[in-house]
Specification:
The chain starts with a strand and ends with a strand. The chain is built from no helices and 23 strands. The protein has a four-stranded antiparallel beta sheet, with no helix packed on it. The chain has a four-stranded antiparallel beta sheet with strand order 7-8-9-10, with no helix packed on it. The protein has a four-stranded antiparallel beta sheet with strand order 11-12-13-14, with no helix packed on it.
């Protein structure tokens, strides 16, 4: 079996300039920022923090959540972390919220699994996620306090990757309803879905910048990858598009895929974002 090496990078969305941040001799996934100099990511089922100003790393205490996947989100105020963790009782991913400041134990939010977190509303009240119910993967929302979940999509096939616009009025997501996987926008209540990408590729995980000016997403060649799959170790692209669907273009090409850009990894400056490219040795 080849060994995976992870290279954590920063991408300038306007110029396409890539800056290597740190090299890891193992698999890391889904980096995202908590402030200007603090990057969180998952590896081996745990969540770690990298301080970009010093290069130091340490583990985030997540209590019982020791099988975290690459679906995790920081709260809008930066004090809480929501993770998708698979308990050993059935290995079905569920969403938990834990405190970072102050540190508090994880609290189960979605009793039903599998549930894969992707978005937290700007007001801090609601989580958006992908979940399989009765064999159909759709976009759901739930109160961050817990309670009943609300289904927002009902088209056949996979609907995934939901996250809120900075003003909370829209949810961006990806769906196979067009035949290929494409990026879409809908109202926060699930209404008025609009297709954003139409470039003949399979396009995943639209991440809107903090200032709402641009969307970055990861894109696969349909000759290599099925529309409903986003595997690792493929030649992929990070592309950019305007929130209204115009200006779609490639920013950078690299070897990656699953784990490279699963969650919103924009820096607060809305110009740069983090991603992971991989090497097999």
């Amino acid at each position: 079996m080849p060994k995976t090496v992870s290279i954590l990078c920063l991408l300038d969305i306007d110029t396409g300039e890539v800056t290597k941040q740190k090299r890891f001799p193992y698999l890391i996934e889904a980096p995202f920022f908590r402030g200007e100099n603090e990057l969180l990511y998952n590896t081996g089922g745990h969540i770690f923090r990298l301080r970009t100003d010093t290069g130091d790393t340490d583990e985030i205490p997540t209590g019982e959540c020791i099988h975290c996947n690459n679906d995790h989100v920081i709260s809008p105020d930066g004090t809480q972390l929501a993770v998708s963790h698979s308990p050993e009782s059935d290995w079905q991913s569920r969403i938990y919220i834990l405190g970072l400041d102050p540190v508090t134990p994880p609290r189960l939010v979605t009793p039903l699994g599998p549930s894969y977190l992707h978005g937290w509303s700007p007001d801090g009240k609601t989580l958006a996620y992908c979940a399989s119910r009765n064999g159909e993967y759709d976009v759901y929302t739930i109160s961050a306090a817990g309670g009943e979940e609300t289904r927002l999509t009902d088209t056949p096939g996979l609907n995934d990757g939901p996250e809120y616009s900075p003003d909370g009025k829209h949810i961006y997501f990806n769906s196979v309803r067009s035949g290929l996987m494409d990026c879409w926008r809908m109202n926060a209540d699930g209404g008025d879905p609009v297709r954003l990408t139409d470039n003949g590729r399979n396009n995943w995980f639209p991440h809107i910048s903090p200032d709402g000016s641009v969307i970055a997403y990861i894109s696969y060649d349909p000759a290599e990858v099925r529309p409903d799959d986003h595997p690792a170790n493929k030649n992929v692209e990070i592309r950019r598009i305007n929130p209204d669907g115009t200006g779609d273009r490639t920013v950078v090409k690299f070897f990656g895929g699953q784990g490279s850009l699963n969650v919103n990894s924009w820096m607060p400056d809305s110009r740069r974002l983090a991603f992971v490219r991989y090497e097999l040795q």
